[in-house]
Each structure stands twice: as structure tokens, then as C-alpha cells.
Amino acid sequence: MKRKNGTGTRPDKHKSSSLPVEKNVEYEAEIVGINHDGEGVGRVNGFTLFVAGALPGERVLLKVVHTKKQYGYGKLLRIIEASPERVKPDCGIYEQCGGCQLQHLSYEAQLKVKRQQVVDNLERIGKLRVFREDLVQEQGQDKSQGQGIIVHPTLGMNDPWRYRNKAQVPFGEEEGGLIGGFYAQGSHRIIDMEKCLIQHEANDDVVAEVKKIGKQLGISAYREETHQGLLRHVVVKVGFRTGEIMVVLITNGTRIPHEREWVEGIRAAVPGVKSICHNVNTKQTNVIFGDVTRVLWGSEVIYDYIGEIKFAISPRSFFQVNPVQTDLLYGKALEYAALTGGETVVDAYCGIGTISLFLAQRAGQVYGVEIVEEAIADARKNAELNGITNVHFEAGLAEVVLPAWKSQGVKPDVIVVDPPRKGCELSLLETILELQPRRVVYVSCNASTLARDLRVLENGGYRTVEVQPVDMFPHTTHIESVCSLIYKGFE
Ligand SMILES: C[S@@+](CC[C@H](N)C(=O)[O-])C[C@H]1O[C@@H](n2cnc3c(N)ncnc32)[C@H](O)[C@@H]1O
What is the pLDDT of residues 135-144, one digit of tens each? Predict the structure, then answer.
């Protein structure tokens, strides 16, 4: 690579280090890939540099801003040759806000990148063989010959905007008064926003109204550094199918001054609002909600559906944020479970029981386990709300409760796992191997821990059949996948 225009200030800390690049020096680089943070992966003299804003296939001018032994970071100065997949971001504050990372890449290309990242993780971390359609076509082979795991194209959204049903917006202050928006990448600096294109429109209306009322009433915003000021966050939840809206004002103080003005203003500005709540959080913490919530106006909960199952959503209860794609994801999980009506199914890491209730429609008996007690209480309420009686929910660690069920004689035909980003505990995977259910369905929000855990299950006698990436969060780097495994003895 050609070195361009050194800044003149020879960086003495890194002087003639053994690295092939120098800090504060400009280089031209080829961008050869994209990492899991959405940064372009560039090569300069064989050295890897991560460059925010650069895309695969591009040639860019960058300045090296930070180096480590194996890699470094470059600041994008100029795009010399742009990728044909580069698009103009629709959002006016995309560059400053940390909410989205991929708006400068066409949506079709985002879906391809996400699938490729799943494939790369399965191959590199899981040491798994992925079926390569291109090779099969070239070599005239047939899919049925078991050429490896089928990783399907990512299931994307027809309209990948305005898909989030929940927003948690922090407030701050500038000279003109209250500001509200999302944090800048890697910081707690609030970027004031008028609209967020991945949130439901009701969120824009609520944030604008809260700023307006707050300014009129002289309400102060909470400041993290000093722990002073009143208004911390507003949380907006929307039932996509029902149209019901909940607004929760979170304050650093037990009272909201001028309650009536708040309620009247929000009701007038946001048609469809069914519930306005106040949550008190006086702790010096990053956690959004405090322990006390009361209803200022309307109902305690709103409702929404995933598939045919109805869910009650309260201020603090968890609910998947993209209901359209959740329907697809759980539909796939149900398909991979291949239930015929009489099976015993375990849903480990069940949250509020969403997948359990989906599965219960086609299973004999479902057992759900989840660490958060409140979520289990919601799961039980949701089962009751839908008249579903063939589910049993238990609060506890999945890796503790599953062996207990085993010793009580529970013999699952199918086990579904939907763990957090860190994946499954090894001991849970070991219990699955002892129980030997016919099928395992793995729902994952982290392709690297998915690949690690699939390797354990493969070593224990399972075969990974197919993986379906589902785009739950367009324009961000998040990847969700659902994966089907079968025990080799049952094939
Ligand atoms: C990715 S979420 C899945 C939620 C649920 N399946 C859904 O779709 O709504 C992972 C869940 O695992 C729970 N969890 C984390 N560690 C756990 C553990 N060791 N045992 C049981 N549940 C756990 C979290 O509280 C969270 O609800």
C-alpha cells in the first residue's frame, strides 16, 4: 500500500515500531470485509485496520488513529472508490447517533452481510461444514448428499423501517431547554432527535410532546454526573396489532409536578394512548426503571399479539421489540420443532413464555424455565389470558432446573433454547446430551456463541441441519438466527 501525506509529526511513541503502519499517518486501503460492529475491515501492508463508515469493496483514504499488536483503527478521510452497495442514509442524524450502524449499506447487502457473518462463525468457531450452493452447482452435486449445514438467506423485512414497538428515550438539557434522543456511539451524550426512522411514529409524537410540555412547565432534565434534575427517560410501547400505546415517564423524584397538564398534553398529541404511567427512579444508576410505578391515567397494561397469542404488556415487562419478525422467527422455531401434537417440549430461557405458548399450540406438554421471576409471573398470566393449560413455568437457572426435571422423569422430545448473548452454560448442554431429545431448536442472538455451542452438541451426537438468520433489527449489526438440530440416532 502506498503511504500518503504523513502528517509531519513523527509519532515518537510508535517510532519505527515493528508494525507495518504508523499512527497519525494517512494511507490508502482496500476494504475487504465488515466486522460485527459494522466497521469496514481494511488491509494496509498486510495489517488489519477497522474503519468506521467504510464498506467492503471500497478503496479509501484513512488516517491511522490507534494501533494494537495485531490490528488498529483508521479514521475514514475520503472514499476513493465507492461500493455499488453504498446508499445515502435516510436518517438526518445517522452519523452522530449510535442507534444504527448500517444505514449506509443497501438493505439487500445488509441481509447478505448478516448471513455471511453467521456462516463465518459456524466455520471458524464451530469448525462446522456449511453447505455451499455455488460449489454444489459447479460440481453437479445434489443437496440430499449431506454436504453440510444449510444456511438460508437472511429473512428480511418488506419494509425495514419503523419496526420497533418500544423506545426508551433519555432526556438532557441544552441552552434552548430539554432535549431528548439516543446516545452517540460509545458515549452517554444525547443526540437530540425529531424522528427516529426505526421506531414506531408514536415515539416521535411522544418525545416531541414531552419536550414541549417540559419546556412550558420548566421541568429540568436529569444529569447523570450530578444526580440532579427530574426527568430521566420516557418509555413508549406500542401494540402493533392492537394500536394500543403506553407512555411511561421516569423521574428522579417521587412526584411529577402538573400531572394533569402532562396527561392532557400526551392524550391530545398521541391518539391511541391507552395508558400513561409514572415510574420513580431515584438511584444513581444506568438502569432505566426504578421499583415504583403508578398509573397516571388509563389502564395498567396494553395488549398485543404474536401470531394468535395475546400478550399483556406492562411498563416493565419484556416483549420482543420487532413483532413482525418475531412472528417469523417463532414460526421457524415451531417448524424446526416438527411437533405432531403429543410431544413433551422444554423451552429453556423462556422469558415471558412467548416461545412456550407458541409451541404449546402443537405440543402435548411444554415446560418453560427462566431466571427472572417477574418474567415467569408474566408467562403464567399470558398462558391464562390465552386459555393455554398444557404449560408449566418455573423460575430458576436453566442449568439447574433442567436436571431437576430430568430426575423427576421429564423426558423431552424437543428442547428449545433461546439464551442471552453469552450462549448456553456448558452444563446445560451436557444435560441436553444426557436427555437426548430427538430435536434441539437453538434460537440465538449471537452467532459466535451459537457456533461454540453447536460444536458441543455436534460432538455429543447431534447434527446441525439448517440455520435461518432472521433480521430482527434492520440497519443495526444485530443478527438473530434459529437453528435446527437432530439427534443422529433418530435420522
Ligand atoms: C434472549 S432472551 C429469550 C427470551 C424469550 N425466549 C423470548 O423470546 O421472549 C434470554 C432469556 O434468558 C434469561 N436467562 C439468562 N440466563 C439464564 C439462565 N442461566 N437460566 C434461565 N434463564 C436465563 C434472561 O432473563 C432472558 O429472559
Answer: 555 555 555 4
* pTM, to two decimals: 0.90
Residue 371 CB partners (closer than 8 Å, separation 6+): 395, 396, 397, 398
Contact 393, 380 (CB under 8 A): yes
If we measure between CA atoms, which residue out of 13, 47, 11 comes closest to residue 29?
A: 47
- Under 8 Å between Cβ of 222 and 231: yes
The Cα angle at residue 370 between residues 300 and 437, in degrees rounded to 5: 135
Strand, helix or coil for residue 126: coil
Residue nearest to atom 17 of ligand 1 (CA): 371
Phi, psi torsion values for 67, nearest 5 degrees:
-130, 145
What span, in angstroms and rounded, lies between the C-alpha atoms of 267 and 247? 10
CATH architecture of the domain 323-490 equals 3-Layer(aba) Sandwich (3.40)
Atom 5 of ligand 1: nearest residue by CA position: 351
Is CATH 2.130.10.10 the right assignment for the domain spanning 3-81? Answer: no
User: Would you say the CB of residue 349 lies under 6 angstroms from ligand 1?
Assistant: yes
- The tens digit of pLDDT for each residue in 379-402 reads 999 999 999 999 999 999 999 999
Which CATH class, in words, describes the domain spanning 166-313? mainly beta
Residue 445 is among the residues annotated as catalytic for this protein: yes
Return binding residues for S-adenosyl-L-methionine. 320, 349, 370, 418
- The structural domains of the chain, with segments of one domain joined by +, span 3-81, 166-313, 323-490
pLDDT digits (tens, 9 = 90+) for 179-227: 898 888 778 888 899 999 999 999 999 999 999 999 999 999 999 889 9
Tell me whether domains 166-313 and 323-490 share a fold: no
Nearest atom (ligand 1) to Cα of 400: 20
